[in-house]
């Protein structure tokens, strides 16, 4: 990668140039983000997976920019207009808008008024006016009269059209206007369609809206632009034509000299036309697009943070699970799962109106709990969730059986997916959905990776942002989460395995086939026998795959096989076997890390090895906790201002956090009502993501209940 790109990435991300350069080399060598951040810390200076993924993003951006530059240079060269100065400026570009500005005068374009003027032979007149070489432009214009240019005014108008186009294509003029436009206010107004549509009421806060573009929160901007897209809002900037025109005219004169009165009038007319007809619409679009790109990045960051928290939600682990997808008229779908999440049994009960078969339903549930040795119960949080939870607690469950409420977001998407059809070809969507709810409780990560993250209900305007950037962020987030936890090689689904560093869908299928034929893996080394899994893929994936009860205990740890010999030396120096060393903190404390530094394995790697030896294969996720909603609150009508209630955070955005209170509508803790969650003495703006986390159990106070709009305003208490 060229040094100009490395320097820019370094400045942008505030990391060392050698870190960027080394990461770029590692990417070129085919290494993945999880592998680089976990096993190549010496080369990255200990950058975490988020920092490495950001470098990867910009490496990809500049790889594409380099291709674009090649195309631009070739086009300009073919026109015979490529100078060394222009070539150097293009090659030094690191900003896409600057690159496109430089290319704009040479880019093939549609027919314009300036095109017509050039064909009429008026370009020399425009050159004279631009060079301020004419005292009286009317006298000069008279020299260009012909059948196509019958009057002096026609000649001057054509010359002005040529100059206006040059102004609009000037990189310096465009950047000067961008600087001005970025300081202006964005404005939105209701359109005629808004007054005729009930749907437009959701945008009423923006029917007469104005805010400095540099201060507008990302969620407000995305909402405004969505309203514009739907035809309910007109959006623009409060640009100042007079100020911009004066600036353009002043810059023109500064670069040359002040023209005489007659030429000055022509130049001023040209400037005003160029601004109003060509520049103002173009630059406005650019600046709003630029602002949206920043809003997209912020929205995508919020989505990524929420997705990370969701995927790393605490699991209950391998427990026999009874899962319920609640419902009223259609009944409650129940499935029983074994410790590995395999479907053992399914049924439907009708404990709620209109059937109200409570006694029969109690008998069915009690029988299932006993027959299948149920240890935990998962209840979906959709329709009839609270009623079903109340019913289950009246069943008379053994004390050891714990009851959990589980988010249903995306369960219906999974149940109708190709993945679900392959897993349960003989079951209908209701059974598949209930299985997904149960598996989410057992291991959220393993189940949720099967669902498009955009269907999980934890985003902020995710359908309005750049979908390519969103997909990149979400894919990286899923990969990072899967590899940070590690994957059981002998129980993981093909879908989960496909997210492991270096594997992908094809190799995942090969691993599953190999596992089925052999009856499971007994060592990581057996991975080398999997068809098409070569040395590079083994290097990338081995450290993230776990084999429980393997002969070599390191196969159930995050220690990479390339470092097994180092652990062997440690054990030998202590006079014990590797098995006797693993998990023995008293022995591990005796090891001098510096003694085992060798080759590419420096102190960061050795310290990681020692941490892993102390607690091999440790799951970084917390343990799942049970939770109970307020028993006397079932509907929004039950809420009154001043009530203090327990709740669960279901989504975190820049403007606040949504809370499940155990009723059908979520409440909102606006960012202004979150100070109770901050350290004492905190000043300045509040970042909701620093105050609460997804699925956190909180206590809130009800501020206001809007029954008509089904909106609940809350204050965070703790």
Q: Can you tell me about this structure?
A:
The protein is α/β, with parallel strands linked by helices and 718 residues long. Among the domains are: 3-90, Arc Repressor Mutant, subunit A; 321-442, 2-Layer Sandwich (Nucleotidyltransferase, domain 5); 496-614, Orthogonal Bundle (DNA polymerase, domain 1); 636-716, Nucleic acid-binding proteins (OB fold (Dihydrolipoamide Acetyltransferase, E2P)), CATH 2.40.50. It is globular. The mean pLDDT is 94.
Beta-strand residue percentage: 5-15%
Helix content: 40-55%
Q: What class would the helix/strand composition place it in?
A: alpha/beta
The largest sheet is: 5 strands, mixed
- Gap between N and C termini, in Å? 49 Å
- The largest beta-sheet arranges its strands as 6-5-4-7-8
Give the mean pLDDT.
94
CATH architecture of the domain at 321-442: 2-Layer Sandwich
List the helices and strands and how they pair.
Layout: H1 3-13, H2 17-28, H3 33-39, H4 41-44, H5 49-78, H6 84-92, H7 96-103, H8 113-119, H9 123-130, H10 137-141, H11 152-168, H12 171-181, E1 185-190, H13 192-195, E2 208-212, H14 218-229, E3 233-237, H15 241-255, H16 261-311, E4 321-325, E5 332-337, E6 343-349, H17 358-371, E7 376-380, H18 385-393, E8 402-406, H19 411-415, H20 418-423, H21 429-442, H22 444-448, H23 467-485, E9 487-488, H24 494-497, H25 504-518, H26 535-541, E10 545-546, H27 564-574, H28 578-581, H29 585-588, H30 603-614, E11 644-653, E12 656-660, E13 667-670, H31 688-691, E14 697-706, E15 711-716
Parallel strand pairs: 4-7, 7-8, 9-10, 13-15
Antiparallel strand pairs: 1-2, 1-3, 4-5, 5-6, 11-12, 11-14, 12-13, 14-15
Helix pairs in contact: 1-2, 1-5, 2-5, 3-5, 8-11, 9-11, 11-16, 12-15, 12-16, 14-16, 15-16, 16-23
